[in-house]
Amino acid sequence: xxxxxxxxxxxxxxxxxxxxxxxxxxxxxxxxxxxxxxxxxxxxxxxxxxxxxxxxxxxxxxxxxxxxxxxxxxxxxxxxxxxxxxxxxxxxxxxxxxxxxxxxxxxxxxxxxxxxxxxxxxxxxxxxxxxxxxxxxxxxxxxxxx
Amino acid sequence: xxxxxxxxxxxxxxxxxxxxxxxxxxxxxxxxxxxxxxxxxxxxxxxxxxxxxxxxxxxxxxxxxxxxxxxxxxxxxxxxxxxxxxxxxxxxxxxxxxxxxxxxxxxxxxxxxxxxxxxxxxxxxxxxxxxxxxxxxxxxxxxxxxxxxxxxxxxxxxxxxxxxxxxxxxxxxxxxxxxxxxxxxxxxxxxxxxxxxxxxxxxxxxxxxxxxxxxxxxxxxxxxxxxxxxxxxxxxxxxxxxxxxxxxxxxxxxxxxxxxxxxxxxxxxxxxxxxxxxxxxxxxxxxxxxxxxxxxxxxxxxxxxxxxxxxxxxxxxxxxxxxxxxxxxxxxxxxxxxxxxxxxxxxxxxxxxxxxxxxxxxxxxxxxxxxxxxxxxxxxxxxxxxxx
Lengths: 146, 388
Prior knowledge:
heterodimer, A: 146 residues, alpha+beta, Sufe protein. Chain: A, 3 strands, globular, B: 388 residues, alpha/beta, Aspartate Aminotransferase, domain 1, Aspartate Aminotransferase, domain 2, 2 domains, 15 helices, 12 strands, 41% helix
């Protein structure tokens, strides 16, 4: 059911972990739905120099996390924000239809981490380290049917 | 290639035993006659079906004419519930079942709700047990049927079937049990236990897929399920799956023979697996009842990890198992059974079901214990929920 690339990124995930002095951290997902993705970024001169993730989820969730971190490393913030869930899925040679919501999670995790970075940069309080997208499982189910 | 392969998913399906396959084979191309015909090869097919029916009846303590062959366990469940519901509608429209039934029962009940029936889904305790008192309290004047599974397919919990049947008998209500996981695995006697209808499926006890049976006690009012020819007394028309029926008969005969000794071995494997996993893996819980469970069933929840990931990694080392996680159920919700026993969603997502069979050995458990703990740890290291 999974492509070889998905299995490769699942069995040998790239960039697992957390960056100690991260410039931006984002956590999305919901344990109720069975997937949570936490992404931390190191950003220098508008460029993402390092990205790491931790993921609770299925094979597709782990693989999309791994691929997403690979895709954004070395990219500018603007380039990273332009990465879509489809781009992540395509880079993995596709995902089974029922797993497409896992790629949404990767896109949202990148955005959440970058939003956190922008907030900090603009001098807002830093305790808001993680954000949750607040999605409900029912909403994701709806996406499935699209 | 001698890649290791250890099959720990016997509740999903079992291999067909060589003796069963051997008994089936002649009915594909040698004795291929239609059982409804009168010439010799047709009569042979008919005789083979009659013999299989006798074997099923002997195995569950019924009369042969109370056994009806079906295409699956799901079909038997559908027939039992819809058949009794529609045949007894004039008497009432209320059905009692449990929250942890197989979807073959749950979705059939939901269908009946959409057609004007009323269904009570009894909750279960933390072990997955219902009590006879719960059943008694749920009975209403319009109750016509109680359907409670013999043993649960996920957590293996075995229900107090005999006690429940006493209540339904006393109240004059039909009692159906989905015994798909139990038949051939634990002793069942419909007469002694007071069961009115019982569903079974051959591929859960080393028989072929695509064949099941429904026991219907003589006198139970039930509608026909498939209309057509005179097969199965016209109640389940269709040219019989002769080879499949022969396979079911042979498989149930073997399964009920020497069951106690076989179960002793399975219980040893089960308890060894439970003991070792509970000792060697932190943040784990056993789902289901410690002793009132199927001989070959264990079900764990590992905190902080998700079941599908666990299954994929076990598969990479040659271990075939199951999970109740959403990702393996084809929906976004984890197993309804694990939620019904009170597990929070995130713990239910991290479940692992191992079901042992006659081909498993102590060495298989040793191999499992060599592979499972590091895989769980590896996934935890990757999980944002796991903080050491």
